Amino acid sequence: MSMIFLRIGSNAEKRYVERVGTLFSGLVVRANLFEASPGMVASLICRLAGLQEPRGYIIDPVTYVFGTDPALPGNVRSWQKVSEEKATAKLAADLRVPESEVSEEWIRPVQVPRLPEDEHRREVLSIKRSFRSLADKTLGRMASVAGLRPLAPTDLRQPEVQDELVAGAITYQHEAVGSRFAHRRYGQLAAAIPPPMYTLCPYFPVQDPGSLGIMASIWSRFAEQHQGETGMAVLQCTPAYLERERQAIVEALDRLPIRAVGLWIDNFEEERADVGVLNGYVRLVHELSLAGKTVVNLFGGGLSNLLYPFGLAGIINNPGYGDSKPIVPVSGGRPAAKYYLPSTHKRETVEDAHYYLRRAGLGRSSEEFRRDVCACPICRDAIRRGAADLIRYFGEVGEADERRIYHPTPRAIERCRFHFLLSRLIEFRWSRSASREELRERLQRDSNRWREIPRAGEHLPRWLAALGIA
Questions:
Q1: How far is it, in rounded angstroms, from Cα 387 to Cα 408?
Q2: Nearest to 240 by CA among 291, 204, 206
Q3: Residues 141 and 39 occupy one common structural domain
Q4: What are 184-209's pLDDT values in tens digits?
Q5: Are residues 50 and 90 both part of a single domain?
Q6: Would you state the pLDDT for residue 457?
Q7: I need a labelling partner for 58 at 20 to 30 A (CA). Which of 24, 105, 166, 330 fits?
Q8: Are the CB atoms for 22 and 55 separated by under 8 Å?
């Protein structure tokens, strides 16, 4: 069975579930989002589960975050405003340490005062409430170090720690939604909530033989505790490690009774990767599928969405990101309006997409645009005069900021994201029933189309080479 999932990472993204969620195989949410907004997430899951053709869900336990530096920007700790007299007590309570162990470096004056009372307040570098709650529910004894330091290999090698992590992750994923309807008045509704489509094993980055051994042990304990076909072992590693140790990875996963495998390749930008890394990825997918594994890419790009003929079983998409994601969090900037060009299989700035189409002589009228560029419902509505409408509709900007820079409007960003999701669905529906020969022909045709235009399709020959069909 081929699958395509929709992942959301914030409350604002619920609109995508409400409008196009039924077109996907299921919904994926991070456990920390569930802890931050349990009512919103639970209601979306219940709505999808109650359809005539129900859609399932997956809750990502995100255990890996507790193995990274908690103080990194965007990670489990953040600067939070409190009254000056409560600063030390809050840090001690949140981080589970005596007040005497609270570091002065964790307290500072309010950096950007906006209110008169900010003069008497402080900012404290404390663990976010969602991660505090998640750690307490899933980490067992290691919850005591959450927010203070990363979980280290010496921690993760302990059998009792592994057992607690596995038990915590399984219990959380199976009980999180139902716990929102624990009151007896919701008994009938709670009974109707299905279990997750897949239950993810707790996971941490694999970067050497030692960490692969730790994860292999955690996978084995997960297989012992989680019975049935819906368990998923997750491999999180760098592109370089995958290319170098692919055979060791396949052997470790092949020994497991767990049927499903989730892949997260750190910051794997498929349109930028070299042929060696791409080929290693394609071969990993193919070899795991031959071993009977159901392989799902948790953050796949344009190539992944075409790999169903090579054994990929599923891909997860996010409206704003999802083509790739780094393991270590990156501080976000302003969201960009990027248009997904179906024939390059990647997102471009609206200006670049318009430039490429104009250089290639594509989409000069609405009819040509639908035939040669995109015929998704968003573009059918938007493109009335040809590719020039890209700028008007998808590249709409608001007033200039204080630096006289124009930024895309929220409406333009939302249009780009809906177009991206619908384009991915169209590609998925084609790819899941295509043969390898048909895939080769399509990529070759796309490569030929953009051959004379620098940067537009320069990745496509590498994709062809990586597939062994150049």
A1: 18
A2: 206
A3: yes
A4: 666 667 677 889 999 999 999 999 99
A5: no
A6: 96
A7: 330
A8: yes
